Amino acid sequence: ELCEHLQRTCNNQHCCERNQRAKMNVSNIELLEQFKHAGKLWYLVNPYETIFQFPHQVPDYQQQVWLPFLVLIVLEQIIILLSKKKRFRLNDQVTSLSHWIFHETGRVVFRGGEYYAYMVIYERYRWWSLPWESAWTWCITAVGVDFCYYWVHRSNHEVHFLWAQHQVHHSSEQFNLAVGLRQSVLQHWCNF
Questions:
Q1: Which range has the top average pLDDT, 20-34, 81-95, 168-182?
Q2: Tens digits of per-residue pLDDT, 27-53?
Q3: Closest by CA position to 33, among listed 76, 63, 74, 73
Q4: Which helix (H) or strand (E) holds 118?
Q5: Which residue has the higher pLDDT, 5 or 45?
């Protein structure tokens, strides 16, 4: 439609072709923009770019890093195939990706309840509020989240009913990047 409009206004096929090339460049730029988020896979972020006043302002980080992560998985498999030391198992990769799809489906279903519970706890039971624009808040929160994640993850290994949902993550016969996608649907409720 845009091409037809431009053709009518400038009456020049060359102008339309230039516009299509520009659209292709925009899509290439959008593709490259996906890779600027790759540092988030390793927490290499600027604290001031990840400070938000309200929960609804926080971007979906998984959505931002899925493409770089997928590229790393493919690159890992190419290296494995070229090294001939390990055998590439497609069924293991498909299983991991299938678990990820179920995990994401659960995330979509449970997200509203998670936000509601968060808001109720925040509004009714918070003792104090930290200044959201402070780098100290970011640093304290990073250490606090890491501390809590350690203990919750450890309990996932030691408490039987938590292990029942977490063992899915450890069910692969190989250790590779795709295993990180192999999560239980209930992982959201049993993790920090």
A1: 168-182
A2: 667 777 777 888 888 878 887 788 888
A3: 63
A4: helix 90-125
A5: 45
Task: Determine the length of the chain.
Answer: 192
**At CB < 8 A and 24+ separation, what contacts does 126-130 make?**
none
Contact 95, 174 (CB under 8 A): no
Between CA 106 and CA 62 the distance in angstroms is 14
Per-residue pLDDT tens digits for 137-157: 888 988 999 999 999 999 999
Contacts of 77 (CB under 8 A, 6+ apart): 88, 93, 176
Tokens 């990047």 identify what position? 177
Structure tokens at 54: 């309200």
- Determine the Cα angle at 43 with ends 178 and 170, to 5°: 30
